[in-house]
Design a protein that fits this description.
Radius of gyration: 27 Å
Distance between the termini: 46 Å
Number of helices: 11
Order of helices and strands: EHEHEHEHEHHHHEHEEHHEE
Strand order of the largest sheet: 2-1-3-4-5
CATH superfamily of the largest domain: Histidine kinase-like ATPase, C-terminal domain
CATH architecture of the largest domain: 2-Layer Sandwich
CATH class of the largest domain: Alpha Beta
Number of domains: 3
Strand content: 15-25%
Length: about 375
């Protein structure tokens, strides 16, 4: 049965709300102040909280703040009830994280209608969360084993060659084998890192407190981080002469780590899918309150159908085979961009190249 917590210091109002909810088929528990409201929310984990705003000791806003601090209760929707039918009070409640606001005296019809709407919204979010977890499990089961096998086969294969030769190989052959093992190990490490980041991002969106904490970072000069990351990747791939930079010095609400990861994956794709000797341009430009980061290559490009598949969860083209095109790295970059309120767009044409455009709000 759906459980609703009612918090109000007026016993008559508590009884009215509780009776109305019981008659509608809900289970209601009550509290007389904000402290008791937080305690009962943690004990019972109700599906919804209806709370008065003006209460002694701990008012509704303070109670809401306490509920949002705890991961177990942070996602419980809250409806405020108050006699203060004015815009400032409503804004304060909404900014604090309340889902809705009703003015006293409230009719049973309006109360139950609002309750129904909020419970439906929560059910939709929970179903989306469970669907995401099911997709994540499915893709790990099917795609991860295939993606792991390729570098593992390379490592075991070259290690077996070294074992069979028993010191008879030429030094240059040993060096080649060691470099191949090292490259396969790096590929495996990056693959595992991307899977872990992806899983963490999906779970992060289910925890409002952790989500807000992840967004509470500031980069004062995004141009310097973009330049350093793109330069380092170009040098690693022996494409330093192909890299072209045109960057602005602007502050962004993002962490150094996440911005570095975004640029690393997208620049790596630009080099990976373009020929040595062809340019890769990384440019940033400000337009009013928006910052655009553009990554352009003159590589093999993609069809419109392939571009549409880039937003899929852990899409590798086919469940059991590696995708021909941008893979998990792009998906991780996209999710990090969206985490910080940005958006990404891909424009591409076969044999003409690709431009990835990232949009962020300027601090």
């Amino acid at each position: 049965m759906t459980t609703i917590l009612v918090v109000d210091d007026d016993p008559n109002i508590r009884d009215f709300l509780s009776a109305t909810l019981h008659n509608a088929g809900y289970s209601a528990i009550t509290a007389s102040d904000g402290f008791s409201g937080i305690r009962l929310a943690e004990e019972h984990l109700p599906d919804l909280i209806i709370s008065d705003v003006n209460m002694p000791h701990l008012d509704g806003f303070q109670m809401l703040k306490g509920i949002r601090k705890t991961s177990q209760t942070s996602s419980i929707p809250v409806i405020f009830l108050t006699a203060e039918d004015n815009a400032p009070a409503m804004r304060k409640g909404m900014l604090g994280g309340a889902e809705d606001y009703l003015a006293k005296p409230v009719s049973p019809r309006d109360l139950l209608s609002t309750v129904k709407v909020q419970l439906h919204k929560r059910a939709v979010l929970e179903e989306k969360h469970h669907t995401t977890l099911r997709l994540l499990r499915k893709n790990i089961i099917y795609a991860l084993p295939h993606e792991l096998r390729t570098p593992l086969h390379m490592i075991s294969g070259y290690a077996h060659l070294l074992e069979m030769d028993q010191g008879r190989s030429k030094p240059e052959d040993v060096l080649e084998f060691a470099q191949s093992i090292s490259a396969a190990s790096a590929r495996l490490e990056r693959l595992m890192e991307n899977y872990l980041i992806y899983a963490q991002l999906e779970l992060l969106h289910t925890d409002p407190v952790e989500l807000q904490a992840a967004r509470n970072h500031l980069v004062k000069d995004c141009g310097a981080i973009i330049a350093a990351t793109a330069t380092e990747r170009s040098q690693k791939l022996n494409r330093a002469d192909d890299l072209q930079l045109d960057l602005s010095q602007l502050a962004l609400r993002i962490s150094d780590k996440n911005l570095t990861k975004i640029i690393f994956e997208l620049v790596d794709n630009a080099f990976k899918f373009s020929r040595p000797g062809s340019p890769v341009l990384v440019r940033s430009v400000r337009e009013e309150d928006l910052l655009y980061i553009l990554i352009y290559d003159q590589g093999r490009g993609m069809t419109s159908e392939e571009i549409m598949m880039l937003g899929a969860y852990m899409q590798f083209g086919r469940e059991l085979y590696e995708q021909q095109g941008l893979g998990l790295g792009f998906t991780v970059a996209k999710r990090l961009i969206e985490l910080h309120g940005g958006a990404v767009k891909v424009d591409s044409h076969p044999d003409q190249g690709t431009m990835v455009s990232i949009r962020f709000s300027v601090v």
